[in-house]
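Quick illustration, no need to memorize.
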Amino acid sequence: MGLAPIYWRGIVCDVCEGPDGSPSRRHPPAHANDGDPGTWWQSPSLAAGEQFQHVELVAALPDVSRPSYFRI
């Protein structure tokens, strides 16, 4: 049983959902460093517009920390 595609501003996504979708299919910035390998942060697709060509993710860390890895 496959997931039905969703439409956001005329763009089709059959993998994830935006902020109003099911929590299990969202990829907000909080998932970038939550320690759960089953979640991740995903920036908006370039198909959503030129404004998403450059995306910044700013992390305010309370202490000195070394990320274990980054995947781009």
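The mean pLDDT is 72.
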